[in-house]
Design brief:
With about 775 residues, the chain is mainly beta. The protein has two domains: about 110 residues, Carboxypeptidase-like, regulatory domain (Immunoglobulin-like, Sandwich); about 650 residues, Maltoporin, Chain A (Beta Barrel), CATH 2.40.170. It is about 5% helix and about 60% strand. The strands form twelve sheets. The protein has a 22-stranded antiparallel barrel. β19 and β20 form a beta hairpin. About 40% of the residues are buried.
């Protein structure tokens, strides 16, 4: 480990020293770009020196740094949807400039674009990156009319879902737990409400969404397949505003405004469903006592201490409650908190320091008089990290930093009364420390070649207290040892190289290639494709090795008609090592020796993605298609042969269209089609003591019927007033009433037990929705 750290920091110091010597002949202009109406920093805004045709983009906090020789120049600042600003500057010393951009007339056309710079998708070395903006999320029709980040990203190539009622997503062959989901840098472990019908992310509170499907920058780690990085709004530091919506199943409200004008602000956004209110009107006493709702709350404050320091505090609090009076209750929720300090050392060096708390917990409770019990489980993180950006030159930006996270997992404590048939039980908690150091360089070589390369050193230490058992290949215990609090049980160290490159043929065409390695030490064990509050998390241990993913990708990227149209195609191959699955008939819940129920193997995924998007104009949208295969192999399953993963979909296609019918009407539609998920059907049955026993052969050798759905939406804008604006959003989910299967089960034919019936369960037919939105 020390050798690896020495290599990383020697490389870092060498690059800085060389570039600093070169930079002494130049001058640097730096600053922050913000929205003139709200004071929100603009991420990825383009900053260029017109005469030199050299430039940069603002970072995740709106900061930029641009170095050039002495001279007189025109500084051009632009951002999609905003009026371009051109400002003359005399560059004869290091200087700072802060610029406010004014948004254009948003009612003249719809803009569907995740790139602040018009040809960033062609120029950037980054592969597998999709940036979503709120115009995409707000105009895509989804179930119950609720704007949803996760439902929107499931319409992108390379991202798959398992069907209705599930916000879990699968990226390029990775499982749902192999996605790193961040909300203001805090990890969200279960990003679903009501078992997957909604996501935890209230779009009203969101500022920026980035999805990395491959070629992840070195600052991200801990997951094998993707990163979904979501940032909340900072809050309006110019004026007070109120925004909200009232729908058939949920309502929401957001309040924001200045704490001190132009220096600090706050933002609070809340959402709640009210199905439980209607249940109380039922004539049935059991139904009246049912609980069925969720709520979530986003809050953030920020304050600029001085020109070099800005402090942020943000949090998320969400909870689901589902139950029947005097019968059972299930509740689960996420809580996160992030305290950040942005510090500008000088016009080249930028630091973000973060202290982060993340907690996910669930409780299952039975109230039956002779079978009462309560199961409580949680996973909790404390994280401290330092992220530096050093702007070596206009062509070269260095990222480096360190990160340390303490994980604590409580698998599930069972408590019960003395009269209960369920015995109380305490499952040992597990603790671990995950730490990392990284360095990466974003280097533009000439006008055609761009490189993004780096390395991440990841370590994991499993800690006591507790008793730890080691199992052999036959899952028999061979050793057991007890460790005290803080004592190291097992250490793992992995070096993760990351490399991406792009070569531009011209401003409109480029090819890209990437390779990246990722490791993962927190794993989800579940036998269901649907998100469940009782999903079990386990750490790397003396039995469980860190998962390892190696992915290579190659792509072609093209823009046309003044960057109005975007086309890309990518192929990828991913190899997964140290994958985890459960044995046939495994008992996962409330099992002290859960590691004895697991099997270990490998996986592979490969595919071809095609993406075409029209970015702006009256008619826009995108078409995405993926042809892929995802397979796993475990010695103890399927005779050691590769078999299809549950979420394997050979064909997956989505079409999204948005049309600005007039200044007040916008209509939209979404069509999705996918090969049915892999499942295991019984291949025979036999009778024992008059009872039917089904016989299963190879795992996941069958398929559900193909999935397809058409959604329609329309938005009517109210008349524009000086301080008040309203709109109505109408939606029709599953417009042609397709009965897509959620599950297919098998049972004896009641008229002839020698015959078997397949019973299909579908969740949704047509679902209309209407939502009233307002801004004051």
């Amino acid at each position: 480990m020390h050798k690896h750290l020495t290599f990383i920091f020697f490389l870092l110091i060498s690059v800085i020293a060389i570039q600093s010597a070169y930079a002494q002949k130049n001058y640097t202009i730096s600053g922050t770009i913000k929205d003139s109406a709200t004071g929100e920093t603009l991420i990825g805004a383009s900053v260029k020196l017109q005469e030199l045709q050299t430039g940069t983009a603002t970072n995740a906090y709106g900061f930029f740094s641009l170095t050039a020789p002495e001279g007189d120049f025109n500084l051009v600042i632009s951002y999609i949807g905003y009026q371009t600003v051109t400002q003359p500057i005399k560059l004869n010393k290091n200087s700072q400039i802060n610029v406010l951009l004014t948004s254009g007339n948003a009612l003249t056309e719809v803009t569907i674009n995740g790139n602040a710079r018009k040809n960033e998708n062609v120029e950037s070395a980054q592969m597998g990156l999709t940036r979503l903006d709120l115009s995409q999320i707000n105009n895509v029709p989804v179930i119950f009319g609720e704007k949803d980040v996760l439902k929107t990203i499931q319409l992108l190539p390379g991202v798959k879902t398992t069907g209705d009622g599930n916000t879990g997503f699968y990226v390029r062959g990775g499982n749902s737990d192999q996605n790193l989901i961040l909300l203001d840098e805090a990890v969200v472990y279960n990003a679903s409400h009501l078992f997957g019908f909604f996501s935890t992310f209230n779009s009203d509170a969101i500022k920026d969404v980035n999805l990395y499907k491959g070629g992840m920058p070195a600052q991200y780690g801990g997951r094998l397949s993707s990163v979904l990085d979501i940032k909340m709004l900072d809050g309006n530091d110019k004026k007070y505003t109120v925004q909200g919506g009232i729908g058939l199943i949920a309502s929401r409200i957001k309040v924001e405004g200045p704490i001190v004008k132009d220096r600090g602000s706050f933002m609070i956004s809340a959402r709640r469903t009210y199905a439980d209110v209607f249940l109380k009107l039922s004539p049935d006493s059991t139904t009246r006592g049912a609980s069925l709702y969720f709520y979530d709350l986003n809050a953030k404050v920020h304050y600029r201490l001085d020109d070099r320091n800005t402090i942020y505090l943000s949090g998320y609090f969400g909870k689901d409650v589902l139950g029947l009076k005097d019968n059972f209750e299930t509740n689960w929720g996420n809580q996160t908190a992030t305290l950040r300090l942005n510090h500008i050392f000088n016009n080249k060096l930028f630091l973000n320091t973060s202290a982060i708390y993340s907690n996910y917990n669930f409780t299952v409770q039975s109230f039956s008089s002779n079978n009462d019990f309560k199961v409580h489980s949680k996973i909790r993180d404390f994280n401290l990290k330092e992220d530096f950006e050093y702007f070596l030159s206009s062509e070269n930006t260095l990222h480096f930093g360190i990160n340390g996270t303490h994980h604590s997992i409580q698998p599930g404590d069972i408590s019960s009364s003395n009269n209960s048939a369920v015995n109380p039980q305490t499952i040992q908690s597990r603790n671990g420390i995950e730490s990392s150091a990284y360095v990466s360089d974003d280097w533009h070589i000439g006008t055609r070649l761009n490189l993004l390369f780096g390395v991440r050193l990841a370590t994991f230490s499993l800690l006591g207290p507790g008793t730890f058992t080691t199992y052999n290949a036959n899952d028999q215990p061979i050793a057991s040892q007890t460790y005290s609090s803080g004592q190291v049980v097992k250490n793992y160290t992995n070096l993760e190289p990351r490399f991406s490159a792009s070569f531009k043929f011209d401003d409109q065409n480029s090819v890209k290639a990437s390779y990246n390695r990722n490791t993962q030490n927190i794993n989800l064990i579940s036998n269901s494709t649907a998100s469940s509050p009782t999903d079990l998390y386990v750490m790397s241990s003396n039995n469980i090795k860190p998962g390892i993913s190696d992915q290579v990708a190659l792509g072609f990227f093209k823009n046309s008609v003044n960057n109005q149209y975007e086309f890309s195609t990518e192929i990828y191959y991913k190899k997964l090592k140290n994958q985890i699955d459960y044995k046939n008939g495994a008992q996962l819940i409330a099992n002290q020796d859960v590691e004895s129920q697991l099997v270990y193997g490998e996986g592979r995924a490969y595919g071809w993605e095609v993406f075409f998007k029209k970015r702006y104009g009256r008619l826009n949208g995108w078409i995405g298609y993926t042809l892929s295969k995802t397979e796993n192999r475990f010695d103890a399953i399927n005779n050691g042969k590769y078999f299809a993963a549950r979420y394997d979909r050979i064909h997956d296609m989505s079409i999204v269209g948005i049309y600005k019918l007039s200044d007040r009407w916008t209509i939209s539609s979404t069509f999705v089609y996918g090969t049915g998920n892999a499942v295991t059907y019984p291949h025979g049955k036999y009778f024992v003591g008059g009872l039917t026993t089904l016989y299963y052969s190879e795992r996941n050798s069958d398929r559900l019927p193909a999935y397809s759905r058409l959604d329609l939406g329309a938005t009517f804008e109210g008349k524009q007033h000086k301080r008040f604006h309203s709109s109505w959003t109408f939606g029709l989910y599953n417009a042609y009433n397709r009965k897509n299967p959620y599950t297919i089960t098998f049972q004896d034919d009641p008229n002839d037990k020698t015959r078997t019936q397949a019973v299909k369960t579908s969740l949704f037919g047509r679902i209309p929705s209407i939502t009233y939105n307002f801004t004051y």
